[in-house]
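Exam revision sheet. Question 4 asks you to relate a sequence to its structure. Input first:
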Amino acid sequence: MAKDAPILVTPEGHKTVTKELEHLWKVERPQVTAEVEAAAALGDRSENAEYQYGKKRLREIDRRLRFLSDRLDRMKVITPEMQATNRGKVGFGAWVVLEDDDGDRKCYRIVGPDESDADRGHISTKSPVARALMGKEVGDEVEVRRPRGEAYFTIEAIVYGERPAP
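Answer key, structure tokens:
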């Protein structure tokens, strides 16, 4: 992906990144700054572990703040309403209910790379499953090429909005 390419994100994903940035900027950074100032007041900084650790932690926080700020600037929020014309096909933000050859059902949501969370069923658009699902319709059979071998699924439902029951 090009550095300036937009990063697709759901409204929930945008909110999560915004909350992390605000927490780092308004809570964690001021707290660590105060700890560093207190440690500096104790004297010799070269042998002061609290001071050294605090400065290191401030650099990590600042690096994360720059990263999150850049991500937010490039994010394009995709709402379910924006998918109104394509609701019959799997696209970004869709919940997809799949059935495998054994009759087991799984439910996944196609999200941006910043939001992927396998425990919640959120899979990145870059994952093999999401790539195989994009543009497909209910009833389509999908072959997913995974590192451990091929898997076959049938699309049972596509929902934009609330998570459906699997």
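Marking note for examiners. The longest helix spans residues 11-40.
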